[in-house]
Amino acid sequence: MTTASLEKPTKSNEWYTPSLYIEAARKVLGCIDLDPASCALANETVKATRYFTKMDDGLAQAWSGKTWLNPPYSLEGTPRGMVSPRESIVKLWIQRLIAEYKGGHVSEAILLTKADPKQRWFQPLWEFLICFVPGKILFNRPDAPPEGHMFGSCLIYLGPNEERFIEVFSELGNVVRRVTPQS
Question: Is 166 inside a domain boundary?
Answer without folding.
Answer: yes
